[in-house]
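Hi, here's the filled form for the chain we discussed.

Project: internal
Contact: R.S.
Residues: 318
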Amino acid sequence: MRNLPEARPAAGGVSLIGVPSDIGAGTLGARMGPEALRVAGIAQAIAQFGLDVRDCGNLAGPANPWQEAVNGFRHLAEVVQWNRLVHDAVHAELKAARLPIMLGGDHCLAIGSISAVARHCREQGKKLRVLWFDAHADFNTGTLTPSGNIHGMPVACLCGHGPQALIEIGGHVPALRPKEIRQIGIRSVDEGEKRLVHDVGIEVFDMRYIDEMGMRHSMDLALALVDANTHLHVSLDVDFLDPSIAPGVGTTVRGGPTYREAQLCMEMIADTGRLASLDLVELNPALDLRNQTAELAVDLIESLFGKSTLMRQSAGRA
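And the returned structure, exactly as it came back:
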């Protein structure tokens, strides 16, 4: 049996940071994600756990010029500007001992948020564990990418493979070591991207592995060695979910986790008591059905903060 550490996440409060940008995406609409999440009641859902929730409003950055890629990157200058804004906002909330939740926006914005988290961990002497829930590995580069959309590159940039202006945002290159990240739910990876992920040594729990070994086993491994000195960051792309339950994304991939599998992931993270920061990205209300995907995302966040279907006491897990 493994004893779970006692901790109360977000004891200092939770800060919602809206980032209304689809600057790194190939489909317009993720810029409306923060408002859809607010309409779905994300602040109220978290506050019910007795936490102080502060909505910091939306960051204001450059508009999406909707241009073709230049040297392998679309909108690089604008992506850099948005990520610098995100970095500064997330780092400020962490420094104030609050738990920041970035409401995206597309997944390229995780470059800024996770750079800030990694910087905070270096300053505080804490270990970092990033759980990356996504249908895609997001490890493309300017030479590998078929589209130039930077929301397919954030993990590569965080690991030091990308334009200098992006990889150095947090003041340290690379911002993230491959051994600090676990990818979960992956099922759509370009060939060149697949080779690079293997070469750098990221631990990936793809859908084939989850099908064969089960979500509980996968999450046990993904959370292994998380302890009292670990900052646990969750980066949740809603295309992680099967599109039958989460249609409101621009890059749907069939064969994703079920509702209960996704809930189990969130519940097991909550069990650790170590959640310290969160990205919630790629929600596209223009493609959704009656805000269904936003409501599901909020439901998952409730589980992440402690709502559970567990009807028995458990001091540990075998």
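Let me know if anything looks off before we file it.
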